[in-house]
Design goal:
Shape: globular
Strand content: 15-25%
Order of helices and strands: HEHEEHEEHHHHHEEHEEHEEH
Number of helices: 11
Helix content: 25-40%
Strand order of the largest sheet: 6-7-8-9-11-10
Largest sheet: 6 strands, mixed
Number of strands: 11
């Protein structure tokens, strides 16, 4: 993987950067943003890290994650002299829910570094590679092309980024390059055991209790599984939405499940929908048709209605894809 010359030139010829990742951040977006920030600082650049939502507990062990600030901390939305970089997303509406704020955010230029299939036309410079298993893999190669040194802190962040988006090197997007890069990051100081335990084995008691309740909602329709979580479940277990990370993956453990769907209630009659599939079933097509996006085997969107009506609509859209795979 070779980063485009245009993105290298773009980053080298600017000095101040506002680096942002998406809402409900994950290890790939957070780790990639921090590693890019560290690389740019080595080159004498100034960087600011922003994310609307808090860093989830499982990612707080990573060096540099405490530098993320909410956008409300900006002195002004008119960030003259700064370049906005979107990391792990390519639509500006993915970094904030307030359209007034987004329209007021004024930077001198913008760039996108992302690996999602659903592409929006944002950014003066864009490097979008849907074939990349993780944005972290793209940042790894970008660091080398920028001439920055891969430090232990950067390696830890990029290893986490890649581990999260490959399901700890278990998903279909794990290829030989991913494993070679992971080995190189370990040689630079990333600790695979620490990463696995923090990212995948650091559940609180409340999160485990929430998981038990979610699994009890399993609803299997032939080879498609649904699980869900409500606002009441969060209150009863004293948990937060970021603690549902990876819940959608568990039903896929069953051999016959081709697609797993997770419905998270975000408000009255409103749900965040996460889709995971096996093999050639492209759930990104479903998500895109519903105004969302993602990858072939991992995508998401937002839907309104009651759970039964949402399930019915999703079944109508998913079944033809499963039957053709």
């Amino acid at each position: 993987m070779v980063p485009p010359a245009e993105i290298i030139r773009f980053l080298k010829t600017r000095n101040n950067f506002l680096i942002a990742t998406h809402l409900n951040p994950d290890g790939d977006g957070l780790g990639s943003a921090v590693a890019l920030s560290m690389a740019l600082r080595q080159l004498g650049k100034k960087t600011l890290l922003f994310c609307k939502d808090p860093v989830p507990k499982q990612c707080r062990y990573l060096p540099g994650q405490d530098e993320f600030q909410p956008f409300e901390a900006l002195p002004s939305p008119e960030m003259k002299g700064y370049t906005l970089i979107l990391v792990d997303c390519n639509d500006i509406t993915r970094i904030h829910t307030d359209k007034t704020f987004l329209s007021a955010l004024q930077c001198d230029a913008s760039a996108v570094i992302d690996h999602h299939e659903t592409e929006k036309r944002f950014g003066d410079e864009r490097w979008i590679d849907p074939s990349s298993p993780a944005t972290g893999l793209m940042i790894y190669h970008l660091v080398g092309e920028l001439g920055a040194e891969m430090t232990e802190a950067m390696a830890a962040n990029l290893y986490a980024a890649i581990a999260v988006d490959t399901g700890n090197f278990r998903h279909e997007n794990t290829d030989a390059e991913v494993l070679r890069v992971a080995a190189g990051l370990v040689e630079k100081g990333a600790n695979p055991t620490t990463a696995y335990r923090q990212l995948f084995e650091s559940w609180t008691d409340g999160r485990f209790c929430l998981f038990l309740r979610v699994i009890n909602t399993v609803d299997i329709r032939e080879d498609i599984s649904f699980v869900s979580v409500t606002q009441e479940m969060f209150r009863e277990t004293s948990t937060t939405p970021d603690e549902t990370d990876n819940f959608v993956d568990f039903p896929r453990i069953m051999e016959r499940i081709a697609v797993s769907v997770f419905l998270r209630e975000t408000g009255e009659g409103r749900f965040k929908v996460s889709l995971r599939s096996k093999g050639e079933v492209n759930v990104a097509k479903v998500a895109m048709a519903l105004g969302g996006g993602g990858h072939r085997n991992a995508a998401g969107c937002t839907m309104e209605g009651d759970q039964d009506s949402i399930k019915t609509r999703l079944l109508e859209m998913i079944r033809p894809l499963v039957s053709r795979s």
